[in-house]
Amino acid sequence: MNFIECNAEGRFVFVGDTHGDLDASKYVIKNYPEDIKVFLGDYVDKGLHSKENLDFLFNEREKNPKKIYLLRGNHEIPSKNFSRKYFFWSELKSKDYKQYSKIVEDFPLVFSVGKILALHSSLPDIKNLDEINNISSGDENWAKILWGFVVSSDYNSFLNKNVPQLNRIDFDRIMGQLNKNILIRGHQVVKNPVAFDKRILTLFTCSYWRDDIVANIPRRIAIADFDKKREINSIDDLVIKII
Ligand SMILES: [Mn+2]
Questions:
Q1: Ligand 1 centroid vs 103 CA: distance in angstroms?
Q2: How far apart, in whole angstroms, are the C-alpha atoms of residue 194 and residue 190?
Q3: Annotated active-site positions, please?
Q4: Is the dihedral of CA 128, 231, 205, 62 positive or negative?
Q5: Quick check: pTM over 0.85?
Q6: d(CA 158, ligand 1 centre) in Å
Q7: What backbone torsions phi and psi does residue 6 show, to the nearest 5 degrees?
Q8: Which domains are delineated in the chain?
């Protein structure tokens, strides 16, 4: 199943890209045992503990499948072609490569609770949430979810022109069609995580970016507490924490 939807009750913790930052993942699992945790993909590469991070999260999810959701990111696309940015897969032995490929291919693409949509990168162009389960590997909407960039003057960010771009007009149109108010996503490193009039939140929960730019990026998570706020319609209704 590409699409997961939960009832809007209790607390939800959203975690951005962890990219081999095992400490970040451990922190979240340890400190939010009762809450539903949604990881937005990109568990490997960049950081020092890719395999350990993926193993840890996968094992925790096996123990607690109703409390932990692992979405798929663009780094969970197996490839044997070595590149400096995507070394995890190319360094795996072939037996492990097969095993890990099977694991990540089952990761869902989109999570929803209340008026929140959460995914790795950008919105698919769909009219109905049911369409998410028809998205298949390699198609246009798959690429948008895993690779798309949000184009916003709020984001002072490196912009990759070779990937799908999400502008404000399409964002409003698609979110309107889906009857959702806010999008929580990862993928981009931005100075200010909030964009589009407090309707998009970009989370990066990893201290690593690129080995030539070892930035001390603040690791952000976001908490939606439906017991305290029945309606979550804006980023202001979330609690953003730096861990
Ligand atoms: Mn990514």
A1: 18
A2: 9
A3: 75
A4: negative
A5: yes
A6: 13
A7: -115, 155
A8: 3-242 (3.60.21.10)
